[in-house]
Specification:
elongated; 6 helices; two-stranded antiparallel sheet; Adenoviral Proteinase, Chain; 7 strands; alpha/beta; single chain; Peptidase_C48_C
Length: 175
């Protein structure tokens, strides 16, 4: 219930994060990131989410995926797709040095499209790539770019050829 003490304590902590203190106050450090009050304020209604908040959230999802019962998640940072799309696999191949992304169940790729965020989800178990855009824009080219990346990454790091025809690519609707 909204009146229980735990809920009230949480609400009080959230209000304090938004309302009091300096924008540069550090509110959290984790996943090699520092989150300030200014970053947290991007979560308010009509706020513009920044890279730090998105990368922090990806870190939270990866951390949760280590618990029993959750699929193993790998998340690229918010700069990955823009670098990939401008340089190809060569420009990002070092980003996974020491990591076999194919050992995970799900790969998350947050994408910033000038004015809003979208998410690409690679399900390695089902061989699907799904593109989620709350504005309903199609991301077929984004799915194809990431599939090509996966093919090149697999060939180079594991010496295994992926068969593109076995993969299903979807631009998901707004619902």
């Amino acid at each position: 219930s909204p009146r229980n003490p735990l809920f009230q304590a949480m609400e009080s902590e959230i209000s304090a994060a938004f309302d009091s203190g300096e924008p540069e106050d550090i509110l959290s450090r984790a996943f090699k990131l520092t989150v300030t009050r200014e970053d947290i304020c991007t979560l308010q209604p009509l706020g513009w989410l920044n890279d730090r908040i998105m990368n922090f959230y990806m870190g939270l999802l990866v951390e949760r995926s280590k618990k029993e019962g959750y699929p193993a998640v790998y998340a690229f940072n918010t700069f990955f797709y823009s670098k990939l799309s401008s340089t190809s696999h060569k420009g990002v191949k070092k980003w996974t040095k020491g990591v076999d992304i194919f050992e995970h169940d799900v790969i998350l790729v947050p994408i910033h499209l000038r004015i809003h965020w979208t998410l690409l989800v690679v399900d390695l178990r089902e061989k699907t790539i799904k593109y989620f855009d709350s504005l309903g824009q199609k991301g077929d080219h984004i799915c194809k770019t990431v599939l090509k990346y996966l093919e090149e990454e697999s060939k180079e790091k594991r010496n295994i050829e992926l068969t593109a025809s076995e993969w299903t690519l979807h631009s998901m609707g707004t619902e």
